Amino acid sequence: MAAPRSFLWSRRVFLTLLTVFVLLPVYVMVSSSLKPLEDVSGKFEWIPSGLTVRPYFDIWETVPLADYFMNSLIVAGAATVCSVTIAVFAAYAVSRYSFRGKRLFTVTVLSTQMFPGILFLLPLFLIYVKIGNATGIALFGSRGGLILTYLTFSLPFSIWMLIGYFDSVPRDLDEAAKVDGCGPIGALFRVIVPAAIPGIVAVAVYAFMTAWGEVLFASVMTNDTTRTLAVGLQGYSTQNDVYWNQVMAASLVVSLPVVAGFLLLQRYLVTGLTAGAVK
Hints:
This is ABC transporter permease. It is found in: Cell membrane. The protein is 73% helix and 0% strand. It has 14 helices and no strands. It has helices at 5-33, 37-41, 54-62, 65-96, 102-111, 121-135, 143-168, 172-179, 184-195, 197-212, 216-221, 229-232, 244-264, 266-275. Helix 3 (54-62) crosses helix 13, helix 4 (65-96) packs antiparallel against helix 10 (197-212) and helix 7 runs antiparallel to helix 10 (197-212). The longest helix is centred in the first third of the chain and has 32 residues, at 65-96. The two termini are 31 Å apart.
């Protein structure tokens, strides 16, 4: 049965308005990044009168953006690798084995997502300072401390997501791997992990995006040498002025890795987010 013409036109109008609503901020960012500072500070013009690419060169000189970029890449990449690695082993154990405290473990993992992140800010700060004073290990103000901080948020969600996805993988694959001589670890890496690639990719993208754009903990747990992009963008605001054209240009530049990664992994991401929810 064909849909009525009124429904088709209503859908087109709605999707068009939704597209304009989504792309309008992007257009404002792009147009503002191509204007001189005096044009951006004045009345906004939808069609710029003068265009310049100078802000895209100035962003690297006004603040050490390259250093911030490297810090974010190291922190987000390490947090993603650690989160995915630990979550794979933990989710496999929960999905395939029965042990004492299994239900308590899964409930605890899920319950950690109910607390706002700001509640952990002061406790983590005090823990890092006390560890540094007692052992000399500098967690506060270091990349390692920030990586551990991000694991407290991404790891519980990663474990929970992979538990659901591993449950959807037939157990017959485990039995077939054992018949062929594989142990539990061999079955995990030779059979289960290849079958769970979409779910693992979805978890990795979530962990990376969480660490890449986080501001609150990065602004407290870092110093001038370990500052990340999310905090470093504040450097374009001074006591006298705000370099809005450079802010827009830098925001577009730092968004490119996430957007490119999302486009490349979109197929795996959609599959991974949906397959684990269907039994």
